[in-house]
Amino acid sequence: MDFILQFSEKNKTDIRSLSLDELTELITSLNYPKYRADQIFRWLHNGVQSFDEMTNIPKILKSALSDCTFIAPVTVYKKYISDLDGTVKFVYRLYDDNFIETVVMKYKHGYSICVSSQVGCKMGCEFCQSTKSGFVRNLLPGEILGQILESQQNLEIRISNIVMMGIGEPLDNFDNTIKFLKLVNDPRGINIGYRHISVSTCGLADNIIRLADYNLPVTLSISLHAVSDDKRNCIMPINLRYNIQKLLSACRYYQSVTGRRISFEYSLIDGVNDSDADAKKLFDLLSGIMYHINLIPVNKIENGIYSPPDMKKVRRFNDRLTAMGASCTVRRTLGSDISASCGQLRSKTERKRGI
Ligand code: SAH
What we know:
With 355 residues, the chain is α/β, with parallel strands linked by helices. It has two domains: 2-70, DNA polymerase, domain 1 (Orthogonal Bundle); 75-352, TIM Barrel. The chain is 36% helix and 21% strand. The protein has helices at residues 20-29, 34-46, 59-68, 141-155, 174-185, 205-214, 229-235, 238-241, 244-258, 276-285, 311-324, 344-352; strands at 8-9, 12-14, 69-70, 75-81, 88-93, 99-107, 110-114, 118-120, 135-138, 159-164, 197-201, 219-223, 262-268, 291-297, 328-330. Helix 6 runs parallel beside helix 9 and helix 10 (276-285) runs parallel beside helix 11 (311-324). The radius of gyration is 21 Å and the shape is globular. The two termini are 38 Å apart. The structure holds S-adenosyl-L-homocysteine (SAH).
């Protein structure tokens, strides 16, 4: 059973990271019938934090399971609620005392959650707080799922949409991201449709192609932010590995396989990427792709050198694109009073601990 040590800490597997097939293999290897695996899978996906809570499972099986597995905890450390729009931001603590962030937003069509995929990030984007204190580790599939289960329980809601736009680069934690997507889509679990899930990437082109080959119809969201390699190299080091042309060719491949419209995120930075010429070049670059562009005035980060353009300039950029026929909107800012964007609270938490 290869998976047994796959998601392991202190030689114990995170049981919530296991698919139902893997869990069944484990339970039958302990000489229990298959239906026990179904029951345990249900408990895990209901958000239990301990084996004790599984009231219909024999004690002796629970004890055998806790010898070789654990439920990697995702526990609320801090919770902030926006007075402006009700957006909730959680700082979650993990088994090894690392912290991550998760944001829950209410929209007309239901609740949307923004989950983290790594503790920290290696990608080095100049404008992003998450990467400033470096990379610590990948999240386990069960820890990505755990953010949803905990948030649902804490707020007594059902999440209907997921965006992988929190801390980390999901395609740099590729296998665990795939595993998470399958877990969250499982009809015996919380069963969120792939079409209600967005995977956001700064542009790991090879892994976009690998993701396409899984043919899960998730929305691919590309953090583009610049339209020339010179500029993109300066603000997003990943561009030195996969330039814009390689990235867009991977996007075309993704679209040809999945048939899904691609989202392009474009953070407007004053005086850097917000000219009329940038708007025209952006429109030309995306020709032949079925897309939607989200414009986001960049959030100023601590000690950051980039500022957002004023709203007049943001609207002008949007209007230029729309006039050319692009599908484009300015993203609404939610939770601005609680530092709801990427990585800001984790860095405050780490600083308070003197890390
Ligand atoms: N690594 C992934 C997902 C995490 S970042 C990615 O790069 O897509 C989620 C989104 O927030 C990305 O589009 C990222 O570029 C953007 N972002 C990060 N810091 C930002 C900031 N200070 N202002 C505006 N957008 C930011």
